[in-house]
Write a structure and sequence with these properties.
five-stranded mixed beta sheet, 2 helices, 5 strands, alpha+beta, 29% helix, 87 residues
């Protein structure tokens, strides 16, 4: 499966946002998916200090991940997906 990814740097922090949700949509499944995607992106050479998942819920873009990053992302326009990776 292909996953859209935004890899950004702001205020000295490298962060990644993956446009995908866990199939079961549970906290545990989301945590595992996020950890797996971060590990895969890092092994591909990306520096990631913080990460989140992004997905549509009830027609709205929702973020899941590091609380400070989720808050930051919620207060700005949606990120632009600038990469894609296999998951």
């Amino acid at each position: 499966m292909k996953v859209k990814l935004a890899h950004l740097r702001d205020q000295g922090i490298d962060f990644a946002v993956f446009f995908v949700d866990a199939r079961s949509r549970t906290t545990h499944a989301r945590d595992e998916l996020l950890a797996s995607l971060v590990a895969q992106a890092r092994s591909g050479g990306l520096r990631i200090d913080r990460a989140a998942l992004a997905f549509q819920r009830n027609g709205q873009l929702t973020y899941y991940g590091a609380p400070d990053l989720v808050k930051y992302l919620g207060n700005r326009p949606p990120v632009g997906w600038n990469r894609e990776m296999d998951a």
